[in-house]
Description:
Layout: H1 6-18, E1 24-28, H2 38-43, E2 48-50, H3 55-67, E3 71-77, H4 78-81, H5 86-95, E4 101-105, H6 123-128, E5 134-136, H7 141-151, E6 158-161, E7 184-187, E8 192-196, H8 201-213, E9 218-222, E10 225-227, H9 231-240, E11 243-247, H10 256-267, E12 272-275, H11 287-293, H12 298-308
Amino acid sequence: MNKIPNRQAICEVLMEEAKKDSNIVVLCSDSRGSASLTPFAEAFPEQFVEMGIAEQNLVSVSAGLAKAGKKPFAASPACFLSTRSYEQCKVDVAYSNTDVKLIGISGGISYGALGMSHHSAQDIAAMSAIPGMRVYLPSDRFQTAKLIKSLLKDEKPAYIRVGRNPVEDIYTEENCPFELDKANVLTEGNDVAIIACGEMVKPALDAAAILAEKGVSASVVDMYCVKPLDEDAIISVASQAKAVITVEEHAPFGGLGSMVSQVVGANCPKKVINIALPDAPVITGTSQEVFDYYKMNGAGIAEKAMELM
């Protein structure tokens, strides 16, 4: 069982690259521990800025550093980064087209018992609605590392959301196909297409395995690139399937499900079911307990697919 959370994978890549590039700067909002960035702060004190609990300043200062030629990575809990500093993300980063990479840590319902104030169930919709802002939800540590390395090579804004806890590996270090803004089709099937992002990719794969035992073939798509959305991948798997299921750790409005529905409706109309968090404060519990309760697990996704069949 993997014990390395995606946030640690981000730190490891940034530390490796910072040795070669002094322009890489990491900024935190009193969250270096939560973001697993303490090792970076200790190893590169001249390339680390602690902003304190001031998310709006975090984003604006990052934008200023970018205009000065730096490559800032601004890390803060996703629940605060995507709400308290929304205007700064919109204006200082996206509208101004600054090279700022926004790292939303402890995304979704990672904070569990802390409740709705600390959950980020709106960030996919909010960040995707900003012109010029890219949105990524990597599914495991290997894909996270590939994503950060790729984003270091461009100068465009991006929002990356990762969870708090380690997630089971989807890929391996030797086998992690990656092309920026291109989804990965993990399995192919003709009955149902399951399109998932972030931590929901592993449950989607589990569901496909359960369905296979029941004689139902399922395509599983790792749509880590929520914006820009890989429409070609959606059309390809949806065209071959009888129905489409989307799975996301997000509210039921404005996220992956809404985007996929638009693409399917315009290109290959068929039924699309969105499995997501409820339009209400979620129950108290660990991430897995919450997912199990709302049937956002392999068994629950498979059950919904069988209903569609």
